[in-house]
Design goal:
Length: 321
């Protein structure tokens, strides 16, 4: 045992909180902290944790005074109104930032387990339906996000962990429309019309494109700058059009100079692709006319090099409508 001045015995201890080693008198060898600071911090945390666990046990299940109480629609509306415009204290934050990775993983696992049991009749929304008003709000919100190109998953990808989780959650589930025919829907005539117009995809029809050309992206920027409301990709009788201005019943096509054979560059079509695209463009022109839509076409060269011309032509057409 090390000895100090005047024959005093000393011992080395390690702080329980910060891990710093400290030399103390032998009779104080059972000391657990290097300072009062560390002692207070650790004790406060321990006391709070123990108190929280006790309170949680006392308030869980049937012990909770709110157990079995159903919140009325009127109360929900009041809560919703009182929360409008309020910014959540956690907005922009993550569990990792607030609690660290280890604790964040435990919290996520706990939430996941709690959510996995809320299926079927255990789900609070089981047997209920959104009102027309709510559906309209959700629809408008989704449309605005698409117009602003502001989808929450834009530029992001699901991790392998998320993919596996989604795959497991779908296993054994029965599709909501299994065994149904078109006649079983509330409005079978509308469903048939949607199929014929190509609004709903079918294995026999080409699906919507999940990519955009460079000139389409440039045209999107132009529409956003002009604050024009638009829809990407409108399908009519099996043919897909690049843009649809739904307020004005106007279709827009952005044609590549090479693939659609711009007459300012090519005197005549030289390749089979160009010939096929010219024929397809004629068919699309006729389809748009027969369906009562106005169709505008802009060349790649004009979109890239003469934006002013494109803007003037577009605005002039919108004023006429």
């Amino acid at each position: 045992m090390p000895r100090g001045i005047k024959g005093k015995k000393y011992s080395v201890i390690e702080c329980k909180l910060c891990g710093i080693e400290q030399k103390v008198e032998y009779n104080r060898r059972h000391k657990q902290y290097c300072s009062k600071n560390c002692s207070n911090k650790d004790r406060k945390y321990t006391i709070c944790e123990e108190r929280r666990k006790k309170q949680s046990a006392l308030m869980s299940g049937k012990n909770n005074p709110r157990y079995g109480v159903v919140v009325t629609a009127e109360t929900r509306k009041k809560i919703s109104k009182s929360n409008k415009g309020k910014r959540s204290h956690r907005k922009g934050s993550t569990f990792e930032k607030e609690y660290g990775k280890e604790k964040a993983d435990k919290i996520k696992e706990k939430i996941s387990k709690a959510a996995s049991g809320r299926t079927g009749s255990d789900n609070n929304f089981f047997g209920k339906h959104h009102s027309k008003e709510t559906k309209k709000i959700l629809s408008d919100k989704a449309r605005n996000n698409l117009e602003k190109n502001d989808h929450p998953m834009k530029g992001k990808h699901h991790s392998d962990y998320s993919k596996n989780k989604m795959s497991k959650s779908m296993k054994g589930r029965i599709p909501w429309n299994k065994g149904l025919t078109i006649d079983d829907y509330d409005n079978p005539d509308l469903v048939r019309k949607n199929f014929s117009d190509g609004w709903l995809t079918d294995k026999r029809k080409a699906s919507f494109r999940n990519f955009s050309s460079s000139i389409e992206e440039l045209f999107v920027e132009l529409l956003i700058d002009l604050k024009i409301k638009y829809q990407r990709q409108k399908r009519i009788k099996g043919k897909l059009f690049d843009f649809f201005i739904y307020d004005k019943n106007l279709l827009i096509e952005t044609d590549g100079d090479f693939y659609h054979c711009n007459p300012e560059i090519f005197q005549k079509p030289l390749y089979e692709t160009q010939i096929n695209n010219i024929e397809n463009d004629k068919i699309k022109n006729q389809i748009a006319k027969d369906a009562g839509y106005k169709l505008l076409r802009f060349w790649e060269y004009d979109i890239k090099n003469d934006k002013e011309f494109v803007i003037q032509a577009l605005l002039a057409e919108l004023e006429e409508q």
